[in-house]
Amino acid sequence: MDLSQPWHRLFGISLMDLFRDQPVQVELEKDLSLKIQRLDIVVLRLLMEPITIPLPDGFDNLGAHNLLTFKSHQQALDTWTLDELVGHWVNYRKQISPTMDELLPVEDFRLYAVSVRFPKGLSETVDLLPLSKAVYEVKHFSGVIRIVVINELPAEQQNALFHLFSTQRKLVTFGKNNYRIKSNETSTLIHKLFERYREEGDTMADLLQELTQQTVKEILDEASPQELLKRLRGIPTEELLRELLTEASLAAMTPEARAALIRHIQSNMPPQS
Q: Do strands 65-71 and 109-115 pair parallel, antiparallel, or not at all (unpaired)?
């Protein structure tokens, strides 16, 4: 299995949650050609209205079109990755411009490479200009690529979400304690992160499991019985039993939520012979 795809999708989902209710649209795995070539993430500024949340370090210069590549702790950020990102930008700029003779200005675009680990191999082949702690720039033919290293980001509120992807336990702990999921639709992000760490036998799994339980409690506390039933509908009973019926989850449920879960389980029970 190619483990790179789940990680960059999870990072994209985290950006969706970060920019919720902001004049920003996040697109994942943008298809750029008839032959499948996908750009990890595109972040679009909508009408260039002001963003009202503190942005992670390195993202202070968002443009109208922001193209991102993400490298997890399993992957190396190398020169080929940067070449691909520039190639995606060239293709993307052609596709969204009015005509080939009226290309959108270069100033409308920003290129980002987010890497969990410091790209040591890359630093030995290209000049990385440090802008601030954990933020670097590298030149390409007509501009620059901004590089953000998650493991080097300061433990500050604006970086909390990114720290959930760190390989440093203290930073994951900081992220767990300081980032609150903004929407029910993206609340499964933390659970999926936990599953990825657990599959890899990582010691960070227990921290994310705690955050998963906290997120589940908040959702159950806020959900009406109708909303809960809507979320449960279509989920196999066995999966619900495995994921929800823990002592902590049951204790977090309101009486109405427990009744809704019981009704769902009963309705999905196989008939007795």
A: parallel
Q: Break the chain into its structural domains and give their ranges.
A: 4-184, 223-267
Q: What pLDDT sits at residue 265?
A: 64
pLDDT score for 149: 98
Q: Residue 12 to residues 42, 83, 111: CA-CA distances in angstroms? A: 9, 21, 15
Given a cut of 80, whether residue 18 has pLDDT beyond it is yes
More confident call, 207 vs 170:
170
pTM: 0.68
Q: At 129, which amino acid appears?
A: L
d(CA 266, CA 189): 28
